[in-house]
Each structure stands twice: as C-alpha cells, then as structure tokens.
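General statements about sequence and structure are easier to judge against a single worked case. For one protein, we set the task of working out the structure tokens from the amino acid sequence alone. This step matters because it turns folding into a mapping between discrete strings. The amino acid sequence and the backbone structure tokens for this protein are reproduced below.
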Amino acid sequence: MDRATAGQRPRKTLFDVEREKRWRIWLLFALLLVLAFVTAWVACVIVFGIAYLFVVRDPAVVAWLFTARGVLLVLGAALVFSLLYWWLAQLGARDRLYAAMHCRPLDPGDRYHERLANIVEEMRIATGGPRIQCVTVRTVGFNAFAFSDLHGGGVIGVTEGALARLSRQQLQAVVAHEFAHILSGGYVTVTVSCLLFGIYSSLVEELDDVADAGADTDAASATLGMVPLRSWLWLMQLASSVVSSALSRERERQADLAAVRYTRDPVALAEALRIIGRHPGGAGYIPEGLAPLCIRATGTLGWPAVSWRDSHPPLEERIGALLGVAHVSRAEFEGQAERAGEDLERREHWSPSPAPASPADPVAAAASPGAAAAHVAPPPGAATPPARGAGMACPSCGAALVRAPYEGIDIALCDRCGGRLVTTSEIGKLLARRDAAFTEAQRRLADLLTAGGDRLRRAAVLARGRPGVSLISCPRCAAPMMRRHYSYEYAVEIDYCSLCDLTWFESDELEALQVLVERQTG
C-alpha cells in the first residue's frame, strides 16, 4: 500500500457521493423545519399568552394552541416558511458568499494571482474536477476556502497573506486540500448549511443595534421585547453551530489525506498548516459563520471554547496525522520547517522599490526601477512587465505619472517626487507581500511614525476643518482629496479620493506603512 494513502478509507464512488449528498440535504431541510416549527410555536405561545392576559381572558384561547388543529396549523406555517426560506437562501448563492467573504476576482496582470490560477488549473486537469473559479480575499491573514455555486461549479479562494507568504509547494498543497472538498461532493452540503444558518449570527448583531436604538427612548420595553427573540435566536445559533461542526470536522481530516494523494507531499501541507496556524494576522475577514468552508477555523462566535462544537480538528492533530503518513518525526519536521522559514526570509525583500529618477541625474537614474532590475536577480517566476504610462499628472508636483512594476503588480508613481497613486485593492496586496527591499530612510520614517504616533493623531484631529489647509486634487477626477491618516493604528498621512477609490502617498510613505505592517505581523 502506498504510504500516501495508508490509513485512508476506500474512495467513494460517484453514486455513493450523490446518495450521501441527498440524505444530508434532506437532513438539513428537516432540521430547518424543526427550528422553524419550534420558533413558530414559541411565538404563538407568547402571542396567545399576551392575548389571554390583556385582551380575551379566556383559557380556551391558549388551550386551542395545544389541540391537533393548532399543532397542524403551526406545522403548516413552519413548512411554508421553510420552503420559502430554503429557496431564498440558495438564490444568488455565489454572489452572496462573495460579498460575505469579501472576495475579489483574480487580476490577470498580478504575478501572485497568475501563480494561483496556474496551480488551480493544473490541479483541475490532473483530477478531472469541475469548472473552478479562483478568488482572493484582501487581508494579510492566512486562510483558504472552497464552496459550491450550487450549479455544478466550485469556487476556491485564498487570502492575499497566504498567497504571498506560502511557497509554491505549500500553496499547491492547500489548493489540493480545497480540491478534495470539491471532488468529495460534501462541499455542496456544507455550502447549503452555511447559507441556511449563517443568517442567525447577523440577525443577532442587527437585533443588538435595534435594541441600542430603542434603549434611547424606552429602555425597559425595548429590552423586555427583545428577550424572547434573542433567546430563540441564541438557541438556533447554537443548533447551527453544532450542525456545522458535525459536517465539517471529519471532512477536514479526509481532505488532508486526499490532498496528500494528489500532491504526494504530506510535509508541504503540514508546513502550510503550521504557518497558517501560527501567523499573527489570523484568519482574515472571513465571517465566523462561514468557518466550515475554510481550511482553518476563523473564531468562536463569542461562544466558550467547547470541543464538541469546533468546526475543525486542532491543527496540531492534523499536522501529526500528516507526519504519520510521511513517516517524519515531530523533531525532524520542526527542524525542516525552521529551515524552510529561513529560506523564505532570504527570498524576501529582494527588489528595491521604484525610486524617482531624472534623466539628467545619472546617479538617480542608476537607482531607477529599470536599472535596479538589471542589478537584482529576481527569484524564479518573478519576471515583471515593463512600465507603461499612466496618463495622469502628479497631484504634488505636476509631473506625468508612470506605471512601474512593484511586488507583482503595476502601480502609478511620480518619477520626479517619488509619490505613489494606488487603489485600495492594490494597497491590500502590497501590505501582504514582502518583495520590496526598504531603504534606511524608509525604516527611519517608520520609526518616527511609531514613536510620534499619538502626537500625529492628535494634530490630525485638531487640524480637521481648519481654514487655509490646502488639499491636493485627485489626478483622475480633479476633485479635492481628503487628507487623513491611513488608519488610527498607522499614523501615515495620506490623501484619499472616495469617488475614484485612489490613495496618494508622498515619497517613502507607502514603504513606511509596509514596514509598520510587517513589524506587527512578524
């Protein structure tokens, strides 16, 4: 028996998968019907009880609810609601999950996105899988996921942090794990489960907002009116959490072993899980209710940590199982993982960021992006397209903006003053990547921003609305750009145009922001 498949269960046939999917779908609908019936029954008890206490004063009103006719009527209403909700939950499923998980389509001009697309296509061809659409999530966190579009296709997503920091072998192992979910057919059930029950966590948050708004006018009545509804939403959220954990936990173990069968490299997946679990950036922006779709858990939904409701097995347990398949000891694996991490650090910060240059200044020209590329040997597969004109003028000095390669994408920069014009999506990518080699001036600027952050934040607040403050114009629409700090945490001053979603960084400010983020995320 091949060691990569040792300990695995026999592969299911297509008929087994379809049969298992059908009975699980029916089980989910039955659970939905039970939850709807219980909710409707409790609501009727509350309404009839209030009617008995304040309106009718006739015990027969409440007693009717416990007759066969009353039970059947409530059950019929629950059935109608369940059918309608089942249909609505699956309507536009892919787009709803895109929005909930903050997905972005791949950029064909992005070197990192191109690598992901190649890996997914290679895996699809090798496994004979269905059509797959690739997406990314703009966060420095580490995670990956797969879900069904409920029309025969699948979606695989990887966060920008994982895309930038995992090696090709590790990323291939993660994609193989997600392909295992797709090929098993179980991902359809989990997708439907998340669509059905993910609404409860958002309803609780919306209910809190309503309660807060009502507390301003009548705190007692608002709180009293929300208690029954909150209690039942809490119970349903608990039920959905248990269902998700029951569907997801064993699936993760099976997908790990199936990924080994596809890649023949259990250590690569173990390394990827180790990196994903230890990264301080967390799991990213993926909602807690959609954790069963992901390769790692995204949180606890505010519940206490109880093993029976975990959606994923412990990462250390999964790593141990993979090392058992590979016949590698834990000590040997840790040493190998440490060496791989050191190799990764040596491969980072290899490319100088684009610097302003003037044709009349040969020293500066030698440091320009084109010249730098001639002196720095990029790692394999890191070739970047030539710079091209951006067609806009610099908002600071009026020079023409040009396009220059920077960490796998093209950004607009001023070749005279060194400013950068980037979109919000491009900022998210750049903060997750570590190709750029920063200068001492850029690191010193990051030190100054860290040391004087509180003073800079106070000054920014005091300067708001003051007359005489000159604002630069957006290079695209010519509207005044809003001057603010990038975030409360990072006191980097930027100019932002909300109409065009463009951010202007003065010279070295973008790189200083990258330094600050790298220091925080390790």
